[in-house]
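> example.struct
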């Protein structure tokens, strides 16, 4: 099975007839900080993401978000999604009151807004996300991430021998393990520019981690980006800085709006805001 995978991907990378159809599809477990001014202690989020990569480009996305966006791209699909969600989440009381509890039922729900697409021919990647200004997008060159490869440091991921590479990228130092056995110069999030597929990556000194948990060769088109016109173009550093400010000052902003919020933790300790300039929460800190 592993040999068939390598052969199929080698054909795709070589530009033969199946190049437009054959993609490597990788499932990743992603860990990142659970950034919230209401957390009583440091915590992390665990997410499921997918990378589909082929000869011309790739897309990194959350499968549930992709599904929800596909439904809401048409009036019929949007109506159907609302019906499913309301049937799962809404409870009517004896007095006619309505309670909505998203944790009550198993209905499709979009909670992860990040998409990263890479266009290998144009040499650029595009980020789509939701930040302080709403739905935003920006572009970057693919060759921004430079690596130092340590051929003496190896580990095995999903049965593939992976080689260590290190990069200082946008404010964080990254360790990534890529496998030369799969001739795809790609990886989760923005990872790229290595002679093989990135199966594991982690930031030094911060809880950001991407680990491949499944891998297959598929004959599918890349999933489309829906409603691109809903995204506003932004400058990357400014968008990240604004988002950081909004997160670290959310408590004071809500208080200014006379919204009641907790002021102490369970043990009675005063709940303090994170100082804005002393700690940066984003995956990139060069803003």
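> example.seq
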């Amino acid at each position: 099975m592993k040999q068939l995978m390598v052969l199929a991907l080698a054909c795709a990378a070589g530009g033969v007839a199946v190049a437009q159809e054959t993609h490597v599809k990788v499932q990743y477990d992603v860990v990142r900080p659970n950034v919230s001014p209401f957390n009583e202690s440091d915590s992390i989020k665990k997410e499921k993401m997918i990378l589909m990569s082929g000869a011309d480009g790739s897309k990194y996305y959350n499968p549930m978000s992709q599904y929800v966006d596909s439904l809401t791209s048409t009036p019929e699909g949007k109506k159907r999604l609302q019906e499913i969600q309301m049937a799962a989440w809404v409870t009517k009381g004896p007095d006619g009151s309505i309670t909505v509890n998203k944790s009550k039922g198993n209905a499709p729900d979009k909670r992860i807004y990040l998409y990263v697409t890479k266009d290998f021919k144009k040499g650029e990647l595009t980020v789509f996300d939701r930040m302080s200004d709403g739905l935003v997008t920006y572009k970057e060159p693919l060759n921004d991430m430079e690596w130092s490869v340590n051929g003496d440091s190896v580990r095995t991921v999903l049965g593939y021998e992976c080689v260590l590479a290190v990069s200082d990228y946008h404010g964080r130092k990254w360790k990534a393990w890529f496998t030369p056995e799969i001739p795809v110069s790609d990886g989760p999030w923005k990872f790229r520019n290595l002679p093989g597929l990135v199966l594991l990556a982690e930031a030094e000194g911060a809880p950001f981690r991407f680990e491949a948990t499944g891998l297959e060769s598929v004959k599918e088109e890349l999933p489309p980006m829906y409603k691109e016109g809903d995204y506003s173009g932004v400058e990357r550093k400014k968008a990240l800085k604004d988002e950081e400010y909004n997160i670290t000052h959310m408590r004071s902003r809500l208080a200014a709006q006379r919204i009641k919020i907790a002021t102490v933790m369970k043990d009675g300790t005063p709940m303090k805001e994170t100082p804005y300039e002393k700690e940066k929460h984003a995956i990139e800190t060069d803003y």
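> remarks
The two ends are 44 Å apart (CA to CA).
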